[in-house]
Amino acid sequence: MRDSFAIAMAMLVATALIGGVAGTATGAQPTISTDGPAAGAQPAVGAAATGAGPAQTDGACGFPYNATDATGETITLEERPDRITTINPSAAQTLWELGAQDRVVGVSQFAFYLDGAEERANVSASFGASVERVVDTEPDLVLAPNSSAADVEPLREQGLTVYHFPAATSIDDIAEKTETIGRLVGACGAASETNAEMYDAVEAAEERTSGVERPTALYPLGGGYVAANNTFIDAIMNAGGTDNAAAEYEAYPQLSDEVILETDPELIIVTDPEAAILDQEPYASTTAGAEDSYVVLNVNYLNQPAPRSVIESTTTLSNAVVELQSDGSESTDGAEDGSSDGDGSDGGDSSGDGSGDGDTPDGDGSTTGDSDGSDGGDGESAGDTGAESPGFGVVAAALALLATGLLARRE
Predict the structure, then answer these.
(1) CB-based burial of residue 79 (10 Å sphere; 0-12 exposed, 13-18 middle, 19+ buried)?
(2) Longest dimension (CA), the chain
(3) pLDDT tens digits for 281-290?
(4) Do 302 and 10 contact (CB within 8 A), yes or no?
């Protein structure tokens, strides 16, 4: 271990970044309609600043229920689903937060960090979800985060009810996704409470860092890929008291060594407690590398667009920023500075198997793009390949990552 600045949370060996790139390609946002009372309000922009989450009551959770997903497909749930299968970890994490884990019958292998998840059927294939395994769980409802776009139609062809989510690129998006899952499974009140807790944590993180200088930070995903603007990881970085050094780029671009040096981050975010990437070029030659300045975040929480991810990551990062300002390079332990030790939620603690979940990053072991878990959080740079333009986008980045095997298990 380095004896420099580090905030170590309970770490798992692998990442969770596979998020639903293809979901955003459709350009469709989910709409909600019910045969009963209207669904609750969507989270307002800036809600994090006030700590207020979207309002929703149990009265809006009646069935039958119709909902249109990111593919434009309208699904109908005649009654509350009692058998739920998730094919990416962020949705599983959310169900655990809502207290609906007892109704989950199938999960991807990258959700096994959740307490008791290993007792559910593993529906993962070598890439994506196994249609046969999902069918065998006999689900009333299949939740497919955006990284799982390719799995949606094959599952529907088997007569399954599948709800596909759009990519989450902000904390408000995560709140909306949580509210949607709550509505789909009949847990509206729990969704509202979870969102309120998440927004409270974001507000606390912003207040915690309001009086300190904001360092520029970078989250390398490996091979020169980084988390840039218009991603939920960027939103976490901003709420945690940092400015994204790659903010001028979009999604998950691959940057050349020269461009990474030009961004010159003051802080590197890693998921490896050894922070080995700081000894590698080009990161070793940045201000963060020279000053050995980094913060360790739990890979499952950082890389999955779900409420516990926001709570744990913003808390830990904001505490790290304050420590960095007050103690310089003095080492601290995340569990001692008020951040979570990694098991933050009921039924959501890390089991230590290193698996993550994935919406880019949130995933099933494949590489796509809404971030639910970057496998390569701190991998080596692929070298001078040149910076992608700001319009590179999540889909192209995900395809490139898939080809190189650098990023995995995102949503």
Answers:
(1) exposed
(2) 60
(3) 999 999 999 9
(4) no
